[in-house]
Amino acid sequence: MGFKMGQTLLDERGRVVIPKEIREKLDLKPNQSLIVEVRGKEVVLKPVLDVENFIVELKGCVRRSQIKPSGLKEIWGIAHAHH
To answer: 9 CB contacts (<8 Å, ≥6 apart)?
Structure first.
């Protein structure tokens, strides 16, 4: 589960301000792209993984990998309907 670090409001245009404590904890920067997911009745925001971080996350995945395919999909920020 997550942690609660503040509260925010949805404005009339549907915008939300992410509290400063969360932005700092997750190292979110202005104009950074986020993925928006719906999980049941929750809205989940996830940073888009840039190419450099993607490569770092993939290191060691080919040989003797400890990462399962579902973990790779999470790193890539994708989900396949057939899995």
So the answer is: 16, 17
Q: Which helix (H) or strand (E) holds 57?
A: helix 51-58
Residue 78 makes CB contacts below 8 A (sequence gap 6+) with none
The class of domain 1-48 in CATH terms is mainly beta
Q: pLDDT tens digits, residue range 51-69? A: 777 767 666 666 666 667 6
Domain borders along the chain are 1-48, 49-83
82 φ, ψ (degrees, to nearest 5) = -85, 5
**pTM here?**
0.55
φ, ψ dihedrals at 23, nearest 5°? -60, -45
Tokens linked to 35: 């993925």
